[in-house]
Amino acid sequence: MAKKEMEIVGAGPSGLVAAMTLQKAGFQVKVYEARKDVGCRFHGDFQGIENWSQEEDILETLDKMGIAINFRCGPFYGGRIYGPTGEQLDLQSKTPLFYLVRRGQVPDSLDQGLKTQALEAGVEILFEHRKKTIEGRAITATGPKGADAIAKGVTFHTDLPDQSLTILDDEIAPGGYAYFLIHEGLATMATVLFRDYHQEKACFEKMKQAFQKLIPYKMSDPREFGGFGNFYIAKSEEHGPRLYIGESAGFQDFLWGFGMRYAMVSGYLAAQSIIRNTSYDALWKAQLLPFLQAGMVNRMLIDRFGATAYRILMKQLKGQAEIRPFMKEKYSMSFKKSLLLPLAKRHVQSRVKDERCIHPTNCDCVWCRCAKV
Ligand SMILES: Cc1cc2nc3c(=O)[nH]c(=O)nc-3n(C[C@H](O)[C@H](O)[C@H](O)COP(=O)(O)OP(=O)(O)OC[C@H]3O[C@@H](n4cnc5c(N)ncnc54)[C@H](O)[C@@H]3O)c2cc1C
Questions:
Q1: Is the backbone of residue 143 left (phi > 0), alpha (psi -120 to 50) or beta?
Q2: What is the DSSP letter of 95?
Q3: Confidence at 147, pLDDT banded by 50, 70, 90
Q4: Which of 142, 232, 257, 279 could form a disulfide linkage to 10, CB 3.0–4.6 angstroms apart?
Q5: Which of 247, 265, 367 should be mutated for ligand 1, with most atoms under 8 A from CB?
Q6: Is residue 258 in contact with ligand 1, taking CB distance under 6 Å?
Q7: Average pLDDT, the chain
Q8: Is residue 17 part of a domain?
Q9: Is the dihedral of CA 62, 256, 318, 301 positive or negative?
């Protein structure tokens, strides 16, 4: 009997997980990817797969989804965090707080690992195929459409030991945070801005100076990068015969942009809905929506109360001997958060058009590039 066919647009983590899940279930899957390889949106930079929003370890979740760990995946059991007034806390966890992965075309990246698994399963990936339209039943996994947050960072080689540092300071990362991640001689430092995008270059410089003061470093082979994230909650992710997954569905962590878990889980859920002929909307609403809503409320609180919210967070963190349960509670929906949800929905809108951008024509900063997407 001829195999059922399925087309997927976009070979990011969401598209590749959907592809391999369907292929293993007996479908013949074709993935269209606009760029010449997977991971071209990234630059060998480190990202963290968060391991705090749910009880189950994310590696166990990935294993249940049939995803093998054939990419660099370093467990981090905590990290140092600096609050708005410079106060410092060491966060600790008995089990991994997050897993560090690399993104991009580099051989040990998550993107390359997932590509290998998809190809081994028999998926066909057509590179340099930018799809504008697609007929019939298909999955859209094309990533962010606009920028609700931007990141400006640099990767480099270092002889510093493995560690994770985070700074919560509006001067360095308006509404967001700056991070410095080191794993086995490689480092990524970036500032994530949730507003004032035109300050990107100044924030980037301030971030480098701030980390230099905290742990003096030398950069060898520095490579700068920029990126952006898109967050929203749609009523449905089934548009006619098409299912939307990952960041093209707006699935993102509104608070801090940890979108990889959403990307991979939503890809798996979309595939399962096709395999089992069930409603994709019902699956993602049961498994992802409460976390999206909690994130939306958290984002509103950070946007409204700024440094005060971060100061309160630092105070709360101070009393935590074990950080994962605390983070789990922050990332979960609660009665209080459900009361704030209507306000949060009004507050958090897509901010693709930032009227405060005062950059000249042909400016090539991350924000101006994102605005043209
Ligand atoms: C700088 C930065 C740091 C981040 N850090 C973290 C982190 O620490 N932890 C975390 O969990 N998340 C992080 N994220 C978010 C995370 O990277 C994304 O949420 C995740 O990659 C989304 O996966 P996706 O499959 O939905 O989309 P993407 O990874 O964007 O993949 C989409 C793919 O679709 C392709 N495509 C687009 N349009 C078309 C088209 N028309 N036709 C064919 N192909 C197309 C693109 O080329 C791309 O390969 C970060 C993001 C950035 C930018």
A1: left
A2: S
A3: confident
A4: 142
A5: 247
A6: yes
A7: 93
A8: yes
A9: negative
